[in-house]
Amino acid sequence: MNAIELDAVTFAHETSGMRFDLNVAPGEWLAVIGPSGAGKSTLLDILTGFLKPESGTVRLEGRDVTDRSPAERPISVVFQDDNLFPHLSAERNVALGISPTWRLPEAALARARDALARVGLGALAGRLPGELSGGERQRVALARAFLRERPILALDEPFAALGPALRKEMLDLIDRLRVEAPRPPAIVMVTHHPGDALGHADRVAFLEAGRIVLSGTPDEVLSGRHPRVAAYLGATRGSEP
Ligand SMILES: Nc1ncnc2c1ncn2[C@@H]1O[C@H](COP(=O)(O)OP(=O)(O)OP(=O)(O)O)[C@@H](O)[C@H]1O
Q1: Tell me, what DSSP letter sits at residue 237?
Q2: Which site among 19, 31, 135, 239 is 20 to 30 Å from 157 CA-CA?
Q3: Which of 198, 191, 150, 149 is nearest to 172 (CA)?
Q4: Which of 19, 32, 12, 28 is nearest to 215 (CA)?
């Protein structure tokens, strides 16, 4: 059984039509790349349930969730920013991932502290998000996402605001959290940095004009043998740090 199946899913914004067919295996890490406007965010929004497709089926863990809201789907999402409640400490933010109640039980807080220690933030568990750096905030968001143990993790350019060295650190952290997870989630990661996939993702999907044009191992796709991918890589090279 696949973790994710998008079957003939269509969606049209005012000027652009999309159609996606995609399978992601349990525990597989898929990076989604492609030019601006290709449909990467739309694909993720359909997967997470923020957009409802016009036709087709979204199946997660074998269950048809096409009409289900984001909260009803077995997914955690980490965005580029605004993942955390600004008035709550890091440990409370993480604990809310497993115990969404106002009066957090001590057991949930203890698990949250443990999760923060595993991402190197044990000493900062009591800080508010505003008292953490951008990279630290994303560590908190990742700690929460992995603690929830949802079968699917959607990453929407989570490290776009970070410099290349920090991005690499974060990708390494995901590698480690995957290995340590009782059941590693399937990951779909939208990124504007194709190089992020190398050494981390299992597969890369290249999107253009609302279609998945090519899907393969990072080495295959990023070799640039496909002319459309080569054109995209050529265009991004100038901006790739
Ligand atoms: N709310 C909207 N209303 C109308 N058109 C939209 C809307 N959101 C996206 N689009 C259009 O749909 C297409 C795909 O947009 P999408 O945001 O999915 O692309 P993307 O690959 O994520 O782009 P980027 O890399 O710039 O974030 C684009 O042509 C965009 O202009």
Answers
A1: H
A2: 19
A3: 198
A4: 32
Ligand 1 pocket member 87 (CB < 6 A):
no
Q: From CA 179, how far away is CA 8, in angstroms rounded?
A: 33
Q: How far apart are CA 135 and CA 116, in angstroms?
A: 13
Predicted-assembly ipTM surpassing the 0.85 threshold: yes
- Residue 168, CA distances (Å) to 6, 8, 118, 145 in order: 30, 34, 17, 19
List C-alpha distances in Å: 178 to 109, 119, 184, 185, 224. 22, 12, 5, 7, 28
CA of 121 to the centre of ligand 1 (A): 35
Nearest-angstrom CA–CA distance, 205 and 72? 26
Phi first, then psi: give them for residue 69, nearest 5 degrees: -75, 165
Residue 197 CA: distances (Å) to CA of 26, 105, 111, 114, 217: 18, 38, 30, 28, 9
Q: What is the 3-state secondary structure (H, E, C) of 116-145?
A: HHHCCCHHHCCCCHHHCCHHHHHHHHHHHH
The response to whether residue 151 sits with its C-beta less than 6 Å from ligand 1 reads no
187-218: pLDDT as tens digits: 999 999 999 999 999 999 999 999 999 999 99
CA of 41 to the centre of ligand 1 (A): 7
| Number of Cα atoms under 13 Å in the Cβ half of residue 223 | 9
The residues that bridge with 212 in the sheet, in sequence order, are 207
The residue whose CA has the least distance to atom 30 of ligand 1 is 37
Give the C-alpha separation, 95 to 120, whole Å. 16
pTM: 0.93
